[in-house]
């Protein structure tokens, strides 16, 4: 089965069209002012209109109801990805604002962090397991930091999940092999510099994530 790929932090039309043409399954749009890829709900909606067969993901950090309502009105995302400190109950609330569901992003640096994920079981439609950001980070994601992906091997959080954090064309195949991920999510690894996507890197990343791997004995 083909690896599911989310290209995230898209903020210009050429990059959206490149990701769609290369076969990305999900396109992520960051609606968080402190990100170098930040968009307004209106800007995200204008880009998401070019999603083709892909699905749009609004990435939000502890949004209030007013912002969720604005995102629904201006963008109508297929998926809402919550990347802050949202509780399971808050994730359930957010489902009313997404066409297909809500994903919870969780930072992982040790096995305990994965056990925490069971709190969200039944309240979300998917997970994004990402690097745990340092306490003084200006944003909770899109930092290009890798982690011990093998912590995920054999782990079942009770919903589909994506692997994220420090992925690039150079390590995505190994990261999939170590973690058993069926899907991957990338921001920094497909950029020329923070906030500027690189079309060649987008294409190469998707190809590398989907390159056939030999069967394990
Ligand atoms: O990318 C950002 O700037 C960002 C800001 C605030 C919340 C989330 C953000 N990114 C979300 C993602 O899903 C990224 O794909 C994930 O953190 C991995 O990023 P990277 O290590 O740079 O590939």
UniProtKB/TrEMBL annotation:
Q: Which GO terms describe its molecular function?
A: phosphoribosylanthranilate isomerase activity
Top EC category: isomerase
Note the Gene3D superfamilies from the entry.
Aldolase class I (3.20.20.70)
According to its UniProt record, the EC number is 5.3.1.24
Q: Which reaction does it catalyse?
A: N-(5-phospho-beta-D-ribosyl)anthranilate = 1-(2-carboxyphenylamino)-1-deoxy-D-ribulose 5-phosphate
* Residues of the signal peptide: none
Which residue ranges does the record assign to the N-(5'phosphoribosyl) anthranilate isomerase (PRAI) domain? 5-207
Keywords from the named record = Amino-acid biosynthesis, Aromatic amino acid biosynthesis, Isomerase, Tryptophan biosynthesis
Q: Which family does it belong to?
A: Belongs to the TrpF family.
Q: Which NCBIfam families match?
A: PRK01222.1-1 (NF002295)
Protein name, as recorded? N-(5'-phosphoribosyl)anthranilate isomerase
What organism is listed for this UniProt entry? Alkalicaulis satelles
> Which gene name does the record give?
trpF
């Amino acid at each position: 089965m083909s690896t599911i790929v989310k290209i995230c932090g898209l903020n210009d039309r050429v990059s959206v069209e490149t990701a769609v043409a290369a076969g990305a399954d999900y396109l992520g749009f960051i609606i968080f002012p402190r990100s170098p890829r930040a968009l307004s709900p209106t800007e995200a909606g204008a880009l998401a209109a070019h999603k083709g067969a892909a699905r749009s993901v609004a990435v939000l950090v502890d949004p209030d109801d007013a912002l969720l309502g604005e995102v629904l009105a201006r963008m109508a995302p297929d998926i809402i990805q919550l990347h802050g400190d949202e509780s399971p109950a808050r994730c359930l609330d957010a489902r009313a604002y997404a066409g297909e569901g809500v994903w919870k992003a969780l930072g992982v640096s040790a096995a305990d962090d994965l056990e925490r994920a069971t709190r969200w079981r039944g309240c979300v439609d998917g997970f994004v397991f990402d690097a745990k950001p340092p306490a003084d980070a200006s944003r909770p994601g899109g930092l290009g930091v890798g982690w011990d992906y093998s912590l995920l091997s054999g782990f079942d959080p009770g919903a589909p999940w994506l692997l994220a954090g420090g992925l690039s064309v150079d390590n995505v195949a190994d990261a999939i092999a170590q973690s058993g991920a069926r899907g991957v999510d990338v921001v920094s690894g497909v950029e020329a510099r923070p906030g500027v996507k690189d079309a060649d890197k987008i294409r190469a990343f998707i190809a590398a994530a989907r390159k056939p791997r030999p069967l394990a004995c």
